[in-house]
Amino acid sequence: MPDCLTKEERDRKLVQIAHSYTDLTEADIQILLDVSHALPSIGNLESGDTYINILTRNGESMVAAQYRHPDCDLYKRDVIGEVEKKEDEPAVYRALEHGIPGRGLIGIIDNRKIVVRHTVSPIFNVQQKVIGSLTYEYLNSGADTEPIRIVNKEGKAAFFDSKINQLISNLQEGFLICDEAGICTFANARAEELYQKAGHPESLIGRRYEELDLTGRYSQEEIMAGGTWKQEVQTDRYVLEENISAIRENGVYQGILVILRDKTKIRQMEDEIAYRAALIHEVHHRVKNNLQTIISLVGLEAAQKKDAEVKAFAKTITGYIRSMSMTYDLLAHTGAEAVDLKTMLAQIIDCVLESWSVRGCRIRVDITGDDLELPEHVASTVALIVNELVTNSIKYAFCDREEGSIFLTIEKGEEYSWVTVRDDGCGIDEKSGDRSGKGLGLKLVDSLVKSSLKGTLTIECGEGTAVRFSVFH
């Protein structure tokens, strides 16, 4: 038979049991009363019985509140005040003793006469101490995988068809339900906690939706029209995500569901990531400036020297440093963590052409191939290598020529990519491995490729020279 107790009778019984068998404070008892007022709403959602249990001074689980659904009514009687054994209701004891929820678990009730499935959630007070447990219960199907769904003959809200157990047991999300008149009829403990963080210290039960709307953006009329809304609510200390949707039964508006999530920690992590990104950007900018300072100092010192070899050495060194500086310049300007290789190579070419020139010879440079982004440490090494190869081509490949061409090609692979620097100049001395006859340039390149890029280097001589090296990324 349906639950015949009035709200006042349920309240009176709960208060009497709490005073007689527990040491709960008046504030704790009030929380239990608030939850008990939601028992009919929870039971009606999926046609099950709902209970509140408390732990007595003797460590026993006692039923303090009950709602008997007319289509379920497992006990067929009022069980308020009865003690449940631990072997029959282990999930209830886990919730009461350890604050651990359980979903879709098997229990044996009424002196081992009825096998049921139930979902149990601990009830916490403001100090996060367990003061009771909330149980939603329905008959077991006999299978371990899927419980029987006792369908209300008059229908039920489609949204809760598959969500009610999850919502009740997941205390990380707060949820509340307003009826068709916009009055809050149920709010779990997490919802109360999150609303307090948003500046609503009062109890949620019985309040109108307009009072509970954290932003005032959506009226009840807009929600009734249909749709789902997601919005963020920010206070001085917290960031909450609020999801609002209409509850409908057979297309008829039945109320409002509000789900709250605390996103404060996520936002704090996002802010930390943004701070670190800004810090890295500043480091890149300062490194670039320091390298530019070194270039200026080397240039000033070289200008005071008359020795041609010293001047040439200073020019080579500043070329290396300038290539590295370009990597950090790109990172500082884009704010990215990787460097676009084509953009970097174009800047290196401009710099090398400005620093080194062959009198009477026009040099054309062409960059083609795949788009490729490289991390900072890899890009700076590639910059040094390309600087050396292009410098060698400009200095030695086009003697006694009126024009010459240098071709840079990028081939992108899954683990390795390849960069080829080719010119149509006079070729190199295959024995020494260098046009200058000293062999130092390509030895430096080979060392950088193998040690820093974990790649390989090949040289092809013929009508010009092609140097191809791989980059592991």
From TrEMBL:
Query: Would you tell me the protein name for this molecule?
Result: histidine kinase
Reactions the enzyme catalyzes: ATP + protein L-histidine = ADP + protein N-phospho-L-histidine
Which PROSITE patterns is this protein grouped with?
Answer: HIS_KIN
Q: Which residues form a coiled coil?
A: none
Report if keyword Kinase is assigned.
yes
Under which EC number(s) is this enzyme classified? 2.7.13.3
Q: Which residues form the Histidine kinase domain?
A: 282-473
Is Lipoprotein included in the keywords of this UniProt record?
Answer: no
Which Pfam families does the record associate with it?
A: GAF_PdtaS, HATPase_c, HisKA_2, PAS_8
| Entry keywords, A to Z | ATP-binding, Kinase, Nucleotide-binding, Phosphoprotein, Transferase, Two-component regulatory system
Main enzyme class: transferase
GO terms of molecular function: ATP binding; protein histidine kinase activity
- Protein's GO biological process: phosphorelay signal transduction system
